[in-house]
Write a structure and sequence with these properties.
Two copies of one chain form a homodimer. Chain A has four helices and eight strands. By secondary structure, the first copy, chain A, is α/β, with parallel strands linked by helices. Chain A has one domain: Rossmann fold. A six-stranded mixed sheet of chain A has the order 4-3-2-5-6-7, with helices on both faces. Chain A has a two-stranded parallel sheet with strand order 1-8. In chain A, helix 1 crosses helix 2. At the A-B interface, helix 1, helix 2 and strand 3 of A face helix 1, helix 2 and strand 3 of B.
Amino acid sequence: MEKRDQVSEYETLTWSTFGWAARQLAQAVADDGFRPDLVLTVARGGLLPAGAVGYALDVKDIRLINVEFYTGIQQRRDRPVLLPPVPPADELAGAKVLVVDDVADTGATLDLVRDFCAEQVAEARCAVLYEKPHSTVKCEYVWSRTDRWIRFPWSGQPPVVVR
Amino acid sequence: MEKRDQVSEYETLTWSTFGWAARQLAQAVADDGFRPDLVLTVARGGLLPAGAVGYALDVKDIRLINVEFYTGIQQRRDRPVLLPPVPPADELAGAKVLVVDDVADTGATLDLVRDFCAEQVAEARCAVLYEKPHSTVKCEYVWSRTDRWIRFPWSGQPPVVVR
């Protein structure tokens, strides 16, 4: 296995590059002729890309789904789970949905969301800023591919500390 | 009335300043001793600040509410309306909620969300990047006050055009 220096372990996304990336991602969706009825935001990581892509595509109907690898009691699960509130089946029925997340890493989260959508919507396509090579989901729209750890601008710093 | 030159009509928020602003907003919430159970995102404008503030406060439970001044048939209403899916009453019961939006302009949107919360939650406080002087809602947490038109980084450009 190739020895890496410390610099190459990380991919750092800045705020301004994020803005440009989200715009390019939206452009790829538009150029592909996909006109989603709604954007399904995968929280939390998808909130910022979904917002930026939603504006860039002029999609006003934004929905949210919470997916976590952790249970309420802080035990890690083998697989991610949908956390309540899960969108009711009839809410998304028949819609063309653009699922937006920050990264397809293992792919398990987006696999779960795709399965959820498959039972309900007319069509679901996935858009992510990054996709890792080992992801089990192959997203229709990907801004960049990397196998490095990604520092997103919203999660690159630890939470604030009370002063 | 004071005559303004064109430059002063706009306040332009860049992506990098937005990142810094969201962090400062979260710091103000933390310093105030408010520990929200969940972040209620006011879509669409609140998506990006809610995501960034949620990460900065380490709040994992993110909810979404859609508010629009327009009906489905593109008629403007006098007042904003909650669009479906409206979070069911029992979902937010007893929670301490941080409502996050981009701007309190007239205040009508946040007034509506506050009224909605008042019937359901233990406590709701509002955090916005900007508050206008004429806003009917006085938010607990405000990053900046201005009476100018604000160009947010996600809505400063028109939607993408198919190439």
